[in-house]
């Protein structure tokens, strides 16, 4: 009789063949984008002292209350498989004295994380995240750059139907005052609230905005909003973040009900969702956490970052072809006379970090467009005498512009969601 077969635990999976290739591509793209923006790779251990997450993520969060894989190390010390990466990165920042380096210190990771959640499509117990953290500066440009990088990553992964929700939670001080106001409001409507929300009025009243319970949602519809109670400094900070995102052509919706499942956030918070995903529509999210390093025993150090789910990016992506690199712009030629100008454009595009290809086989213009389409090019630049027609292959729109403005136009187009 043969031995009974064994299966991977619930909520975990094997990475095989094409999937492994697609992940390698995803990693290469994330690395090229983030290293290019000055982020250094960091890997922290798969498990940490439980206290790191209890303190960092927050005792009243679902993650700490219900979702951690915690075990005894055999010597009476409690360890936990990391459910997220921000607290470990901050722990490493303090442990390695990174405050002595030039600030902000920018770090990125691609690691596996563990949460004891109900497994379903897009929700696993072991999952991977690409994350990026910038520590040591509270400049709103850090927030905007960080969010724009995630927008660029999702666009490079071909993630479809993306929406960005953005809000500010204010600094700890302005929040304290608002918290009391919200608690008063919740107590006044206590009888309509779900058991869960009621039990968290003292510890974590903001989570009430996240409730699924219908009566709670009705109550929360008219609840006071934190965005209307920010301090002047926080309001100005948030306005600058929005201004810079506008400048970078990153589209967003302000959502004053946005709360995140982790307690460390201050000021900017955001979440990218994809309508191409089902119930688990969150593809990536993050925000500012100006108090976390200090909470973990370091000097007061502002921080800002995000993490995006690898599985969700792949589910919502338009298929990351194994090994194939995305073509941002395909340079086509109207006639042979445009060859030099086209070659110059190709080089300029590559110097700007774009993935660019050029017609190399003497095809007709129609043939070149067909070829660009087969390569999955996002833009085709048809170089003519003295100008270039830039064609957006996603919406079919085109415009005739000066050849030396094409790279800029493509960069702007790629950033706009
Ligand atoms: P989070 O929103 O908990 O944030 O997770 C970020 C992303 O990880 C989610 O948007 C989702 O794509 C993915 N994810 C989370 N849980 C699962 C799961 N069970 N299965 C599959 N994918 C999942 C954080 O973790 C923060 N550390 C983000 C951050 C970094 N904030 C500041 N810096």
Order of helices and strands: HEEHHEEHEEHEHHHHEEEHEHEHEHEEEH
The tally of strands reads 16
Shape descriptor reads globular
Name the hetero compounds present.
histidyl-adenosine monophosphate
What average pLDDT do the residues reach?
92
Structural class per helix/strand content?
alpha+beta
Radius of gyration: 24 Å
Please work out how many helical segments DSSP would assign.
14
Topology, element by element:
Elements: H1 17-36, E1 40-41, E2 47-49, H2 50-56, H3 62-66, E3 70-72, E4 78-81, H4 86-95, E5 105-114, E6 126-135, H5 140-156, E7 162-168, H6 172-188, H7 195-199, H8 214-221, H9 232-247, E8 253-254, E9 266-274, E10 282-288, H10 292-295, E11 303-309, H11 310-316, E12 329-333, H12 339-351, E13 356-358, H13 365-375, E14 379-383, E15 388-392, E16 398-401, H14 406-415
Parallel strand pairs: 1-5, 7-8, 12-13, 12-14
Antiparallel strand pairs: 2-4, 3-4, 5-6, 6-11, 7-9, 9-10, 10-11, 14-15, 15-16
Bound molecules: histidyl-adenosine monophosphate (HAM).
Structure summary:
By secondary structure, the chain is an alpha+beta fold. It is built from 14 helices and 16 strands.
Structure description:
The protein has 417 residues and is α+β, with helices and mostly antiparallel strands. It is built from 14 helices and 16 strands. The chain has helices at 17-36, 50-56, 62-66, 86-95, 140-156, 172-188, 195-199, 214-221, 232-247, 292-295, 310-316, 339-351, 365-375, 406-415, and strands at residues 40-41, 47-49, 70-72, 78-81, 105-114, 126-135, 162-168, 253-254, 266-274, 282-288, 303-309, 329-333, 356-358, 379-383, 388-392, 398-401. The strands form 3 sheets. The chain has an 8-stranded mixed β-sheet, with helices on both faces. Strand 15 (388-392) and strand 16 (398-401) form a beta hairpin. Helix 1 packs antiparallel against helix 5 and helix 5 packs parallel to helix 9 (232-247). The N and C termini lie far apart (58 Å). The relative contact order is 0.13. The mean pLDDT is 92. Bound molecules: histidyl-adenosine monophosphate. Residues 84-86, 115, 117, 123-124, 127, 129, 131, 133, 261-262, 282-287, 289, 305-309, 311-312 line the site of histidyl-adenosine monophosphate.
């Amino acid at each position: 009789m043969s031995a009974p077969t064994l299966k991977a635990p619930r909520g975990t999976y094997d990475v095989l063949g094409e999937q492994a290739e697609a992940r390698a591509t995803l990693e290469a793209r994330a690395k090229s984008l983030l290293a290019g923006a000055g982020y250094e790779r960091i890997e922290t251990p798969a498990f940490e002292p439980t206290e790191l997450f209890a303190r960092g993520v927050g005792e009243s969060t679902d993650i700490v209350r219900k979702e951690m894989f915690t075990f005894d190390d055999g010597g009476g010390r409690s360890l936990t498989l990391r459910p997220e990466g921000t607290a470990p990165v901050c722990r490493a920042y303090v442990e390695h004295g990174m405050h002595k380096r030039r600030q902000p210190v920018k770090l990125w990771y691609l690691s596996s994380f563990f949460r004891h959640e109900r497994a379903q499509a897009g929700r696993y117990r072991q999952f991977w995240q690409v994350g990026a953290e910038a520590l040591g500066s509270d400049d709103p440009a850090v927030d905007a750059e960080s969010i724009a990088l995630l927008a660029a990553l999702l666009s490079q992964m071909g993630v479809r139907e993306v929406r960005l929700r953005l809000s500010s939670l204010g600094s700890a001080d302005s929040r304290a005052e608002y918290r009391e106001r919200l608690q008063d409001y919740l107590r006044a409507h206590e009888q309509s609230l779900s058991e869960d929300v009621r039990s968290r009025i003292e510890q974590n009243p903001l989570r009430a905005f996240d409730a699924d319970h219908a009566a709670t949602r009705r109550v929360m519809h008219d609840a006071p909003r934190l965005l209307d109670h920010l301090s002047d400094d926080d309001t100005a900070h948030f306005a600058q973040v929005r201004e810079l995102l506008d400048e970078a052509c990153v589209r967003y919706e302000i959502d004053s009900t946005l709360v995140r499942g982790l307690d460390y956030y201050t000021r900017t918070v955001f979440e990218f969702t994809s309508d191409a995903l089902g119930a688990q529509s969150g593809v990536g999210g993050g925000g500012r956490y100006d108090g976390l390093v200090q909470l973990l025993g370091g000097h007061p150090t502002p921080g800002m970052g995000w993490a995006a789910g690898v599985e969700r990016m792949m589910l919502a992506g338009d298929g990351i072809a194994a090994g194939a690199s995305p073509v941002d712009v395909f340079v086509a030629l109207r006639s042979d006379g445009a060859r030099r100008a086209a070659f110059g454009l190709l080089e300029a595009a590559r110097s700007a970090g774009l993935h660019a290809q050029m017609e190399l086989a003497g095809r007709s213009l129609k043939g070149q467009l067909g070829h660009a389409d087969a390569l999955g090019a996002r833009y085709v630049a048809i170089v003519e005498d003295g100008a270039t027609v830039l064609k957006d292959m996603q919406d079919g729109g085109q415009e005739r512009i000066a050849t030396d403005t094409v790279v800029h136009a493509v960069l702007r187009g790629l950033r706009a969601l």
